[in-house]
Amino acid sequence: MLVPLSWLREYVDIDVPVDEFAERMVMSGSNIETVKNYAEGVSGLVVGRVVSAERIDGSDHLNVCKVDVGAASEDGEPLQIVCGADNVRRPGILVVVALPGAVLPGDFKIKKTKLFGTKSCGMICSAQELGFEEKAVSVEMRDGIWILPSDFEVGSDAVKAIGLDETVIDFEITPNRPDCLSITGIAREAAAVFGKKLREHKGEHKEPSLLCSSGAASDYVDVVVEKADLCPRYVARVCTDIKIEASPFWMQTRLMFAGVRPISNIVDITNYVMLECGHPIHAFDIRQVEGGMIVVDTAKDGEVFTTLDGKERELSGDMLLINDKAKPVAIAGVMGGLNSGIVDDTETIIVEAANFNADSIRLTSKRLGLRSEASLRFEKGVSPELSESAADRVCALAAETGAGAVVSGSVDRYPGKRETAPIIVRVDRMNAVLGTAIAAKEMTDILRRLDMDAELSPDGKTISVVPPHVRVDLKDEIDFSEEIARIYGYDELGVTLHRDDAEATASSGWRLRSLVRTALTGVGYSEIQTYSFVSPKGVDKIMLPQGSSGRRFVRLINPLGEENSVMRTVLLPNLLDVLSGNFSRGAARARLFEIGNTFRDACGELPEERLSLSIGFYGGGDFYDLKGVVEILLAKLGIRGARYVLDADTGSWHPGRCARVDLPGAGAPGNSSHDTEGSSPGTLGVSGSDGESAQGNHIIGYMGEVHSDALQNYDIDVPVFAAELDFEMLAGKADMAREYVPLRRYPAATRDIALLADEDVTVYDIEVVARSNGGGLLEDITLFDVYRGEQIAAGKKSLAFNLVYRADDRTLTDGEVGKVHERILEEIAKKTGAVLREV
Amino acid sequence: MDRRPEQILDEAKDLLAEAKTEQDFETARIRYLGKNGEVTALLKSMGAVPAEERKEFGKAANAVKQEIGELISGGKAALAQSLRASKLMSERIDVTEPGAELPFGTLHPITQTIDEISRIFMGLGYSITEGPEVETVFNNFDALNAAPNHPSRDLTDTFYITEDTLLRTQTSPVQIRTLTSSEPPIKVISPGRCFRADTPDSTHSPMFHQVEGLLVDEGVTMADLKGTLDAFAKRMFGEDARTKFRPHFFPFTEPSAEMDMSCFVCGGKGCRVCKGSGWIEILGCGMVHPNVLKVGGLDTERYTGFAFGMGVERIAMLKHGIGDIRLFYENDIRFIEQFA
């Protein structure tokens, strides 16, 4: 809301500097975006008269002008100024001349110069060059120079003549304060803040000197409100003897400072009154209102109506129209019709100051995609109490400015009139909320400063308040706590801490996320954060099998684009997107992870949100580097007994280099006591088979080398290793208890062996046999080398293990170790076919 | 007796002064102290010395033997010392060469900022609670006292899943979840993702993070709100941070406020970061509207409370001087690793 200070001063005295005014308005709740003075930094402007203006030979738009600037000319002669505007070629017009040495807004300095070979001593200015926005300049002058009224004094200071020394404050109006979308609304605030009196326009129309026309309004117009719920009030007044011309210069500049384009006197007056009091006004040419009859009623479904802007609009049955006897003439509160607006030869007008239902206007304007200054105000709420004085103010201004004569009386239909009941405000309640000890009398005074009727009860405990009718935001007792606090001053409230004995806690999920993040950054992985909404194509790019639950999306009704149209079901596509981005930017390596929600349609009202963990890298390393990371992660979470099972059917991973990570099912070792969280079967979307593997194990996730076809979809031509793990499952299985195991005191005996095994025999197979035959003495078995090559037959591999034997109560003898070791070797050979390799 | 012990000693001293290698010392030892050495010979010749001089002579000869012995062992030790020293010097390295590249990961700056905010509020006794990203219209708007026609409900502002569910536009619905599931005293913060239908540009992101805060108890006042958030600002941005509260409007608080903080770059003098004002808008807050407390079934006469919400990206951008919000979601490792 652009508020010219001179306009505001008509309603309230402001006797502090602008800076202080702005600061105190902000601190009392009227936030300010900008403060601008149009004369600041501007100098050297005078009023000039164009004596002659002729097109320069050979130029398609430049004119050489002689401009009389009176005493402002050094030698008393008219200045020669080259000007490119078309509307300058009207000798005799008065214009704004920037003399050589003048400074315009934006520190634009004017110098003597030559244009198209012609000397130019200064510049003839447009309104935009003086700092006005294009949308606030009349159409005639928008594309040319600003033509001033003919009674200005040639040679005089143009800043003074125009009134350019104007400060315009742009207030940010919150949606609860539609009353402040007006000069008087802001003035009411200023009056309260600075303890001044508010001066409102009331009743000028009743002065007989303004009533120059005969008859009464009801002789000209009748109003029928068919839909009282959508039109609580309709006030119509009539002006005759209208002469359509430009409005007075002072009104034009006020509108321009307020960001509204001057058009013609009647339209300008309706806009002026709307800005002044916040009530939208519409004016009809009475010739187009058949039978002088205004009927407020809803449209017929599918009815087509052409609005003032020349566009055809298809209406629906719940949209409110202003009709005459036979046809619609306006979409109520939104925009007038092309058929009934003010035209050059309009002589008699109906002034409509009507009130319309906010929701109805909002829906209509939204569905038509048509917003106007009027609809913006109506949809936020306008008080019907304003209608009469708004109509009166239009008539008064029409008479005062000579735009027309006013017909006495009005037609006022007010079916929605409501009695305003006072609201009871308890002094103690206010102080309890604010933490203050404001005296009842001071509170009452504050409310009165805000233009409210406030009556303190004899016992001093309650205040009976009737707020001004424009304050549609004040409904409940609590609403007055802010009124009192903001005038009392938020700065004046105490600064205390509430005393309580609350203890801070965080869910185990929160703590485990933190722990996992620490573990992963510790091994060199950096965290990423990616959008929760993704493209549905991601699952195609990672080649997720058809029928996988990861393809059952939660979809947005109104996404920004296909790229963000579904909620992610897996993190892998986002991870690959980010790896791809870094790869294409030339990063030699990237090690990344993300913990984030995935979304799945569920039976309830809301989708299931499930935390997932993605880990991935490119640039050095292989499957076992990734597995090392997963192993560290599981160790940190106290999860033991994970099995890595080759899974060739995931789609996303290399069929020979992908492990499904399983945890033993219920009852098996490794289960923990934290099963309450995320104990439902996993729903990791990265495979066709979700949740539980065939053996009844829980699937934690998948890891491995990403399928090269998938990588092609992401334009990555180096191997990428990635894992996606069900974070809820991890959290559910996490066991953070750490029980001390006594350090072993007796020495260990170690044996290194190399086994010749078929390629199909896994390390896990051999370890299982070894452990189950260890007779309580095998402490550990660790693979330390794998060899394939010339020394070995094709289809075979050599696996070198280190076995550690130890007892808790004695030093083992060679004989004891040898017996167990032999048995292990025999069993391995029997179960897996792997035999000691002769070296 | 052709030579006196003193003579031999002087000669030996000269010789040893010249000794540079282990071998030089060995040669000297053999020459003087060896089986046929000069000092050995001297001692052997004792018999030829007249009896009255013998005692004196023996003493002198033994002193010479001892001194030469000490000179040799001392010289050898010094030589070994200097050899060790020069060996160590020969092992010197270029300490300006870069350190080894050890694995070192970085948390995303958004996570770091949320962690920092959370730590501060946990220190003030606030527990962490979280809510879903997909929310009901009821929790996100209706229960938060938002007018049925509030523009933020529009399809142009809010992402909808169905008519009744949406991507939450704020973390405030967690207020409703907490109020309906627990009893006062309620003292929680809730970090999380939020969504608004904004086309991405340098200051807008369709996905962003907020941290919500809620305190509901008997006797909670607006002064408590000011005190709490002032304490937060000082811990987050330094003890010099000053705060001021401006009236504002949120449907779910009354009174409502926005908190500004003195610019931590210029200290309030005015600079580019604070656009010359000396103040930076940090968060929105207010006293919980009784209509919201009622959703939780609370006695609004007995309980009051305050709530606040802050944009995590905004705080991270201010703190780190980041000029474009989109950087957070591009996940360029060069960006993320700056926040190690």
Structural description of this entry:
- The complex is a heterodimer of chains A (839) and B (340).
- Chain A is built from 22 helices and 40 strands.
- In chain A, the strands form ten sheets. In chain A, strands 3, 4, 5, 6, 7, 10 and 11 form a seven-stranded antiparallel sheet that branches. Chain A has a seven-stranded mixed sheet with strand order 28-31-32-36-35-34-33, sandwiched between helices.
- The longest helix of chain A is centred in the C-terminal third of the chain and has 19 residues, at 814-832.
- Chain A has 839 residues and is an alpha+beta fold.
- Chain B is built from twelve helices and nine strands.
- Chain B has helices at residues 5-18, 22-33, 38-44, 51-90, 109-123, 137-140, 173-181, 222-237, 290-295, 312-320, 327-330, 333-336; strands at 127-128, 134-136, 165-167, 186-195, 207-218, 243-250, 253-262, 279-288, 303-311.
- Chain B starts with a helix and ends with a helix.
- Chains A and B meet through helix 9, helix 12, helix 14, helix 15 and strand 28 of A and helix 5, strand 1, strand 2, strand 4 and strand 5 of B.
**Uncertain parts of chain B:** none
Mind describing the biggest β-sheet of chain B? Answer: 7 strands, mixed
The CATH class of the largest domain in chain B: Alpha Beta
From N to C, what is the helix and strand string of chain B? Answer: HHHHHEEHEHEEHEEEHEHHH
Fraction in helix of chain A: 25-40%
Low-confidence stretches of chain A: 667-683
What is the radius of gyration of chain B? 43 Å
> Could you please say which CATH topology of the largest domain in chain B applies here?
BirA Bifunctional Protein, domain 2
Let me know the average pLDDT of chain A: 91
The CATH architecture classification of the largest domain in chain B is 2-Layer Sandwich
